[in-house]
Amino acid sequence: MIVEAVGLRKSFGPTSVLEGVDLAVPEGSVLALLGPNGAGKTTIVRILTTLARPDEGHATIAGYDVVREPAKVRGVISLTGQHAAVDDNQTGLENLVMVGRLMHLKRGRARQRAQQLLEQFDLTGAMNRRAKTYSGGMGRRLDLAMSLVARPRVIFLDEPTTGLDPASRLTMWHAIGDLVRDGTTILLTTQYLEEADRLADRIVLLDKGRITASGTADALKTQIGGERIELYLADEVAARKAAGLLGGLADGPLLNLPSDGTAAHLHHVLDQLRDEGLLPSRVSSHRPTLDDVFLTLTAQELR
User: Fold this and answer.
1) pTM for this entry
2) Which of 172, 200, 221 corresponds to the end of one domain?
3) Cβ count within 10 A of residue 277
């Protein structure tokens, strides 16, 4: 495993932020960290990127200990945060060459690497424009390109597409996919569940500093009950009464039930509701989404 963490614990004063987190990430894969605000995602990233020390536990990146060998860890990783680290007054080309020079590349090699990255991220046409004229999506692509100048083995992406429009987000997803196909390992935090579903080989759900579930997106969806039935009742009172009869979760007039996906089960549900005078106005069924997983396993709907 290129990224490993065992028993990570971290507190700030009396507040416990991480309570024994274990991670294992194979090389050339994408791990997504999901969880509500305050779950501990950013603290994990800060520990793994040597910006914070754990109170207990240990972690390694490419075999280097994040506490005892921070300089070696920094030599194989890159971190792209929520806000672009781009110099707005420099051109795209100048930004990339500057990073190359800071990493001790000779000027010609730095310029050559910059040209490669500008082409890879479809920024060649804007290479001589000042970065402050770039759109949000172009700025985030440039920021990601800057993090790749030194060809890191592991990239930490902290909500990389926050604030981007759908088209720019899709472009970033393609860029991230290309990196993984080239063998780069990515640890991703995101507030977009569709993003984790699309990009991640494995997902870790955090809540209150603990891992509540982990696995592939499909495995997590299956874990909360396969198919779901949505029934729209007359009002919230009827939905709550139906939930008392059948189980499931009532949200306003909507009742959400787990199902095995068979017609027999749907008939059984409708027969029970009819006997109680609670026939729904509309019925639909669907496979669970990551939204369902997130809400169910973090108990977000109860907060």
Assistant:
1) 0.72
2) 221
3) 9
